[in-house]
Amino acid sequence: MAPPGYEGGVDAVGLVLKGTSGLRLSADVMTGSCSRMAVTRIVANLAAPDPMALAKFYQEVFDLDLPFDMGWIVFLSSDTTQKIELHTASEGGSGTELPVISIGVDDLEATETAVRAAGAEIVYGPVKESWGLRRFFFRDPAGNLVNVVDN
Which position among 44, 74, 92, 102 has the lowest Cβ density within 10 Å, counted as fewest Cβ atoms? Predict the structure, then answer.
């Protein structure tokens, strides 16, 4: 019988449990070993009526590469390495609206200057929050609320 929140069964390898959240756990019944899938990345998808125009905005402001364009989706990337994070929240903190994405930067002031130069409106901050982070929010050209935070 599978534990609560999992569907279970036996395959050629052994016991397989699939969580209702999509997490897949497997165990080799013969050896008793257990493996867990690994998250390799989490990607943010921003809604945009004109994906290329929005991509060019982010390319300009955050100095990102634009390696791939399929028309309906445009990829932006950077060669930096980061840890994987996924946040769940009911608000953006300090009573603010929840941003659709947070972008960590090494120079908040320079980023604020680049955001303003690109014509985006700063709608919150810059501010040092009571929990120690410095940040600001802006609306991108497609209306997405973006949190920019110093690392």
Answer: 44
List CB contacts of 145: < 8 A, sequence separation 6 or more. 92, 97, 98, 99, 100, 123, 137, 138, 139
H or E segment and range at residue 121: strand 121-128
Give the DSSP letter of residue 49. Answer: S
pLDDT in tens, the chain (151 residues): 555 554 555 444 444 444 544 555 555 555 566 668 888 888 999 999 999 999 999 999 999 999 999 999 999 999 888 888 889 999 999 999 999 999 999 999 999 999 999 999 999 999 999 999 999 999 999 999 999 999 7
Question: Which long-range contacts does 70-77 make (Cβ < 8 Å, 24+ apart)?
Answer: 73/45
> Long-range contacts for 50-58 (Cβ within 8 Å, ≥24 apart)?
50/142, 53/141, 54/140, 54/141, 54/142, 57/118, 57/120, 57/140, 57/141, 58/140
Q: What pTM was estimated for this model as a whole?
A: 0.74
- How far is it, in rounded angstroms, from Cα 98 to Cα 113? 23
The SS3 call for residue 109 is helix
